[in-house]
Design brief:
By secondary structure, the protein is an alpha+beta fold. It folds into 2 domains: about 1-115, Nucleoside Triphosphate Pyrophosphohydrolase, CATH 3.90.79.10; about 120-180, Orthogonal Bundle (Arc Repressor Mutant, subunit A). It is about 30% helix and about 30% strand.
Length: about 190
C-alpha cells in the first residue's frame, strides 16, 4: 500500500471581533509532503502568505485509506494579525465553512485553547482595543454570554493590559477606554 502525507495549514485572523479563516480556496491550505513538514510549511508560508512572524502549531493527525493508498494528514494551525496580511490575495471565510469536515472540532478546540493565551491575544490585538471588543471575541468563539463587569475586573486583575489614556471614537454608545497588551515575559492564561 502506498503512503501519502499531507500537511493541512489553517491560518486564522480576527476581523471585527470575528475569527476568520485565511485562505485562497474554500478550505485549509493543503501541501503534499515530500520533505520535512516544518520546512515545507515555512517555505509555503514565506512564498504564499508572506508573513515571517507566524507560529504554526501541530494540533491534529489523522489517517484514511483511499484508492488503496494510506493518506496521513497532519494539521497545523496558527494566528496572524489582519494588518500583516495582503488581503487582496486571500479570502477571509467564517470558520463554519469547515463545519462538515473531520477537523472542524479540532479547529474549534485549538481556537479555544489558544484564545486564553495572552501571547495569542497580543498577536490578534497588537494595537489599541476596548475591553468590550475582547469580550465580544470570547463570546463569539466560546458561544457563551459573559457578564460585562466580571469580565472587565478579571481582565484588569490579570495585570496584562494597560490603559492608554485614550478613548475610542468608534462605539455605538459612550466612548470606551482604549487598552494595549503589556509586554509579558511568560504566557499568561486569561481565563
Amino acid at each position: 500500500m502506498q503512503i501519502e502525507v499531507i500537511s493541512l495549514i489553517g491560518i486564522f485572523t480576527m476581523v471585527n471581533n470575528q475569527i476568520k479563516l485565511v485562505t485562497t480556496t474554500d478550505n485549509l491550505f493543503c501541501i503534499k509532503v515530500d520533505n520535512i513538514i516544518e520546512k515545507l510549511n515555512e517555505e509555503f508560508i514565506n512564498k504564499n502568505i508572506k508573513i515571517k512572524k507566524m507560529d504554526l502549531s501541530q494540533c491534529y493527525t489523522f489517517s484514511e485509506v483511499k484508492n488503496n493508498k494510506l493518506i496521513i494528514s497532519v494539521m497545523h494551525l496558527g494566528f496572524v494579525n489582519y494588518n500583516d496580511l495582503d488581503v487582496n490575495n486571500f479570502k477571509l471565510l467564517d470558520i463554519s465553512v469547515l463545519k462538515d469536515t473531520v477537523f472542524y472540532s479540532k479547529c474549534i478546540d485549538y481556537l479555544k485553547n489558544r484564545l486564553v493565551s495572552c501571547v495569542t491575544m497580543k498577536r490578534l490585538y497588537p494595537n489599541e482595543f476596548t475591553i468590550p471588543e475582547i469580550q465580544k471575541l470570547y463570546e463569539n468563539v466560546f458561544n457563551i454570554k459573559i457578564d460585562r463587569r466580571n469580565f472587565r475586573k478579571r481582565l484588569i486583575r490579570q495585570n496584562i493590559i494597560e490603559d492608554t489614556g485614550k478613548m475610542s471614537l468608534y462605539t455605538n454608545g459612550r466612548p470606551a477606554k482604549l487598552y494595549i497588551f503589556k509586554d509579558v515575559n511568560q504566557d499568561v492564561s486569561l481565563f
